[in-house]
Description:
The chain contains 12 helices and 12 strands. By secondary structure, it is α/β, with parallel strands linked by helices. The protein folds into 2 domains: 2-161 and 194-223 and 268-278, NAD(P)-binding Rossmann-like Domain (Rossmann fold); 167-193 and 224-267 and 286-293, no CATH class. The strands form 3 sheets. Strands 3-2-1-4-5-6-10 form a 7-stranded parallel beta sheet, sandwiched between helices. Strands 7-9-11 form a 3-stranded mixed beta sheet. It is globular, with a radius of gyration of 19 Å. 48% of the residues are buried.
Amino acid sequence: MHVFVTGGSGLTGPAVVAGLIAAGHTVTGLARSDAAAARLEALGATPHPGALDDLGSLRAGAEAADGVLHMAFGGDFSDPDDMMRRDRTAIEALGHALEQTGKPFVSTSGTLVMPAGRESTEQDEPDASGLAAFRIAGERACLDFAARGVRASVVRLAPTVHGPGDHGFIGMLVDTARKTGKSAYVGDGGNRWPAVHRLDAAVLFRLALEQAPAGSVLHGAAENVPFRSIAETIGRGLDLPVVSLTPDEAAGHYASPFMATVYGFDAPVSSAFTREQLGWSPTQPTLLDDIEHGDYL
């Protein structure tokens, strides 16, 4: 299969591109810079010049491919409405290029769209007033193409896709612990944090392209980790005290009040349907193993 990929030169993207090529697929990757193009070429992919706002480039890439994987997401996080519009518009451009072809179209969302306080399944509705509600429009835009002759599916990734070089939520948590001299969690730290290793996520994306039925929603989460365990592992590795913070204290401790909300969020998810539907079976190290033995510390 010839796959057109957006976001292939980011943090998770290279593992996905490498996994697709190793499985015998060919990849063309959207590249908005010379550095991105070089990274794609080093992986064995063909760069396709353009950006998410370049709808003509997106359509051309999709039309020339046997399937599309959309992972890119960006913009100004202080303006989530603009990020939502950019993502939805890009998805619509990609999907229109595939209409009535039966080709696969896999788009990316996040498990933080799900309601807090209980373990959500792939069949549950996302929370339209929740923490990551700005991702829902993109999900719906992609899934709408399932009724228009496209094998469209959505992969909701865990908030932490861990592995070497991760500078996301866990990397920021480690930086905060170093700067403040303590590793912290909010309340009793019992909130559950979904996580998946980058290489396991890469396998899931490949399986979704190859197998996912039209209209599928898939959860890319290998585990749900109590946040206190994350803080304790960081504290032990850095030889720092581990402390509980109230929500008000957390708002001043972390980079922003929003990050305090994120780190105190309890939104575990099940991936049982995803595993059964695609035969996905995560095999890589857990998040706590990666924090302890990887490059986070």
